[in-house]
Amino acid sequence: MASHKRCKECIISEKYPDADIDEGGVCSFCTSYQKEKTDILGEEALRDILAQATDRKSQYDCAVAFSGGKDSTYVLYQLKEKYKLKILAITGEDYIASDQAWENRFRVTKKLGVDHIIIRPDWQLYKEVYRSVLISSGMAPRAINLVHNLMHEKAVFEVLNTRDIPFLVTGNSQDEIELFKEWEKELGFQFSGPSACDYWNNWRSAYIKVLEEILPAELQKKIPDIVWPTLSKDDPASRTKHIPFFLYEPFDVGKNMKIIRDKLGWKLPSDVGGTETDSAGLQFCVHSFRKLHGDEEYAAQISKLVRSGNITREIAWKAYNYRNDTIVKRFFDDFQLSWENMDPENCTPFLKKWLGLFLPIR
């Protein structure tokens, strides 16, 4: 791999078109970048909402969708140590997390003394769903995320709908929160009010639509088992209010990572590439992207995430330099695939629209 001068703020190469690097070592993209100011609602507003938990006789004040990555770990820490809440951490086993991510999950929940529930679905069923998505997308980068997200959503739903928990707190960044609004618009979501019932039923319909498009005939009849059931407004999950934590508190990824490292012994996984800190599946996506578009395009894509504040330069640099195709070989073996299956232009229409709504390759 040729050595090129790289921006000291992001990791983009001087060889990338229009990425002029000045004498100070900063590229033109970083110099001209202006992040839109996001209004943070503030700690007091969050405390006012969380105080409503005392009105419900529940074992827990809130649930946290806990992947074990940097963001959900920081949220878990703050809710326990700063807000003093009784928390249930929920992890959906999607069978594509890294081993070190699992170590983080167990280490963090034990250190905080937080109850942790892990939902493990039928691997043989979802293995077929993974394979169908990859085949139907022509192994387009990020396609595997559709199943990854579905399994996490279903796990959270199953827990919330069997317990009376007032709040579900998530660790999505402001950029991701804005992206969700775009998803809701593009996927045709309909809302009748503030109830979480609309959220669950809209996402259920969207997943069913794409599964009907991509699954082979023998799996079509299993769609009701793959997604969650239709929700009524009287069901427990409908009464759980969703709270994006970083709408209320600032998102500072460098600061947050230092806190969870120092306080919880959280470690940046070294057994996966990509910029996520929990998923081996995304390494498969990254490998596909780099095969299609090259290393420097990948560096340019993840540099956008550095500029927007979603990841640190440390994470981006680690992701760029990761060279290990063990995970890719494992996925090929598990799903009976090869590079001959790669042709993203063959991606089915609704799936292609769905994948087009993801953030840059991570």
How would you characterize the overall build of this protein?
By secondary structure, the protein is an alpha/beta fold. The chain is 48% helix and 6% strand. The chain contains 16 helices and 5 strands. It has helices spanning 28-32, 43-50, 70-81, 99-112, 123-136, 144-160, 174-186, 196-214, 217-220, 223-226, 253-264, 281-293, 295-308, 313-321, 326-335, 349-355; strands spanning 62-65, 87-92, 115-119, 167-170, 241-244. The protein has a 5-stranded parallel beta sheet, sandwiched between helices. It is globular and about 60 Å long. The mean pLDDT is 89.
Topology:
Blueprint: H1 28-32, H2 43-50, E1 62-65, H3 70-81, E2 87-92, H4 99-112, E3 115-119, H5 123-136, H6 144-160, E4 167-170, H7 174-186, H8 196-214, H9 217-220, H10 223-226, E5 241-244, H11 253-264, H12 281-293, H13 295-308, H14 313-321, H15 326-335, H16 349-355
Parallel strand pairs: 1-2, 1-4, 2-3, 4-5
Helix pairs in contact: 3-11, 5-6, 12-13
